[in-house]
Amino acid sequence: MSQKTKATKAPFDPSQGRKSKKVPLTTVARLVGQRLGKSKPDTEFKYQDVLKFAWVPAEKVYINYERQRWPEPVHIDKLSKKWNIFCVTPLQCRYDPNEDIYYGSDGQQHSIEWVRQYGDQSMVPVFYVESTDENVESIQLLALNTDNEPMAKYFIHQQKVVMGDPDAVELERTVRESDCETAYKKRFPGAITHISDLQMARDEYGLDDLHIVLTKYRQYWPTEVVKTATMLGFLKVKEIMDLNGTFNDDRFDDVFAEAANYFEDADRLHLDIKEQFAHTYPTNYKGMGVREKIASGILNVYHKRNDIRLGDEPFEIDMPMMG
To answer: Model pTM?
Structure first.
């Protein structure tokens, strides 16, 4: 795919330049059409005759396990503990008119909990296609569970921020105060796209340490995106320094300075250390923790150029020194 095509098909914000973030669907579709070209409209297609919605007695809903995944009690238990009627999606079904039965193909876990919540005599919300062909169930199951794009963690995080979730709000605040920005499939200085790594850093090292590392990252690599593997490596280094009583701001600055002088850029820091581990431990390097490996490489470089030991390297590694 050419760079021009990638740029044309990249995710974009239809509300950009507007005072309101609320954009008519027709406008969004028109903007997407300008990027993809026109679709082939079938104005004669009576979609309302094919896709239908109904409230169906629970007793008329079946699950054909030749065509469906098994129920997952762990998943259903989680649903029961955070049940919210606003979030329930209709059960996707094939309706067989000869049997007068609705066969569920997607949304099984929600529908099971629905019956557990509201009883055998309840009415189940169903979105269905009428057909006597059982293959329709398989088509629905596979399309809805393997073909569709899962929601990126970035958008989940942003929704939590908008809703005022304290953890998400504080994480976003810390990122912005560190001169960084959460992003989705974009590359610009300070951009952080791996939201799960960011959340892991918060949960395991705390927001204060995350702020320190991100701030210094931006100071020493101001033109680069934030590589979260490198970020986690520096967080591990700080943890080691804290445990050994060797941390102070000036010394941690020195650690970043040595790394910035030794490695071509923050991305190469991760890759060079990874390559050295592959060379040193060819049979088991993949099973060694990534952040521990990166921390080991960073510490090894620092220890070779300074008399002060900051703490033991998690794994023994010998980074080659030039000159």
So the answer is: 0.65
